Amino acid sequence: MKVPLLDLKAHHEPIKAEIFKVFEEVFESQYFILGPQVSDLETQIAAYCQSDFAIGVSSGTDALLIALMALDIGHGDEVITTPYTFFATAGTIARVGAKPVFVDIDPVTYNIDPEKIEAAITPATKAIMPVHLYGQVADMTRIRAIADKHGLKMIEDAAQAIGAENAEGKRAGSYGDIGCFSFFPSKNLGAMGDGGIVVTNQPALADKLEKMRVHGGHPKYYHKMIGGNFRLDAMQAGVVKVKLKYLNRYTQQRQQNAACYIDLIRKSGLIEKGIIALPKAVYADSGAAHYHIYNQFVLRVKDRNALRDFLLKEGIGCEIYYPVPIHLQECFTYLGYKTGDFPESEKAANETLALPIYPELTEEMQSCVVDAVGTFYQSK
Length: 380
Ligand SMILES: *Cc1c(COP(=O)(O)O)cnc(C)c1O
Prior knowledge:
By secondary structure, this protein is an alpha/beta fold. The chain has 2 domains: 8-102 and 110-244, 3-Layer(aba) Sandwich (Aspartate Aminotransferase, domain 2), CATH 3.40.640; 247-378, Alpha-Beta Complex (Aspartate Aminotransferase, domain 1), CATH 3.90.1150. Helices cover 37% and strands 12% of the residues. The chain has a 7-stranded mixed β-sheet with strand order 1-7-6-5-4-2-3, sandwiched between helices. Helix 5 links the parallel strand 2 (78-81) and strand 3 (99-102). It is globular and about 70 Å long. The structure holds pyridoxal-5'-phosphate (PLP). Pyridoxal-5'-phosphate (PLP) is lined by residues 59-61, 85-86, 88-89, 131, 157, 159-160, 182, 184, 194, 196.
């Protein structure tokens, strides 16, 4: 049986009629950029993300970029973040002219290790940008305390974590000055193209973000600041609104799939043999409903590359997130980092593999995935 890493066709088929209705509505209105679809979505996402304001933008990357710009972060400033993340996290810091300063991850959650943040703070540090990797909230209680103690801004890269909660049920994006989300189709709440959104609780910041989204002009054509074209399309906003209605169900299905994998992998005996380590949802027993939203289900495994090759050959989708930590990317050579600087990030980059976890995955498919993993290690 073939099992893809993601099956958007299966995901969208049950809501096809609702989505086509949106296409028709937008077509009839001829209102293609911003407008009522976008402002409706903003109201709904602000509520969903426990924030006062939401501003729709053109992508998750642009959400990070506009957040940095709105907080006046630029040349001479340093921003602390994790090297084990999608490129955009550090890429946007560099694009505003600031310097990304990396701090290693906690090997259990793969999120930035709060213990190590203070040692990286210098007089040039302006902000901390934690990432809620794979759909689990970073240790925000401690990171918030560090940011407050040192007077630092906080931008959350919540691209993989919409709705994810910590032990108190507080949601990703609501801890920082600005929370950033992506509607890339493979995210838990995806559009049918590019899109993103930022959230904040600060009225002045919301106002600035809204102006910066349209080049910073206010009134139109009169500029006190430089923004950009960070607008969200009406069509994408309409699609996301339809899917937002079902997001809690999608999250539950992902959590059920994770539980099923955990059960199957435990039964395989590969954990005791030290061959596989399961992902750990640290807030699982807290009672928070969205303790982990499983944008990815990531194992730590022996012989990772060979397992990946075997699974792909068997028709089982899997992926390495991310094979090269950001401090070792060629474009960041100028920062002066070297192999060995962040051992946990480097180990994670070499040892982890993501399995299919999308909501429509069946138990039969999951058995097939775990059987294939078992077959690979038996043959060794
Ligand atoms: C997807 C992602 C982004 C970028 O989002 P886009 O919408 O693709 O621009 C940023 N950070 C993280 C951690 C992501 O996973």
